[in-house]
Amino acid sequence: MPVKLKRLLMCLRREGPLAAVLPMLAALALAGLLLHVLNGRLRPVLEATASSQATNLMTQAIAAAVDNCLQENSVSYGDFVTLEKDGAGKVTSIISNTSANSRFKRQVVEAVVRQLGALDSGALGVPLGTLTGQPLLSGVGPSVRVRVDSVGEVTADYSNSFTAAGVNQTLHRICLDITATVYLFLPGEVLPVSVSSSVCVAETVIVGETPDTYLNLEKGNG
Predict the structure, then answer these.
(1) How far apart are CA 186 and CA 158, in angstroms?
(2) Cα-flanking dihedrals φ and ψ of residue 145, to 5°?
(3) What is the rounded distance in angstroms from the CA atom of residue 48 to the CA atom of residue 83?
(4) What is the C-alpha to C-alpha distance for residues 43 and 45, in angstroms, rounded to an integer?
(5) Beta bridge partners of 125
């Protein structure tokens, strides 16, 4: 066999497997590039949609936790504060029932943690059609799985507001300002979502002049 022909056959034998692999490598590279582009476009939509869903569920869970604690403890305005009056019946000061308020706040925080830990992950799924951003495809197709990975810090503080409620009348509202964080597990990442919600726990109308003395009613106390 001529030397040149022998060398040509040897080259074909060496390049044969490589020639067969090259199209496969090119297809994989193209698929990887396509996935990268799709991920860059769809992930922001997925994060925004999942975060919005979680925010709504968390707000509902916080309100439910506070309502349950109020009902279980049969709490009323007088359990949070004591109105001191003079001999003429005029309110002279409002004093916080610190011990009872602290105990109730701890119960609410524990209840919120339980409620958030029990969030329905099925309500957090995002349909593929929604991720396209096309209105006609919204809610269509299988859902991308999203679930609550863990519950982060939950804090609560009391706040008070005094507003006019009529002639010589003042509405006093006591609220719990609750901040909570959960971590959502999305494909390839964990997304933190934080919510702040203010829930009224008690209110009353004070008749007469609003007293000048408020003890331990500032935010963070009680």
Answers:
(1) 34
(2) -70, 130
(3) 47
(4) 5
(5) none
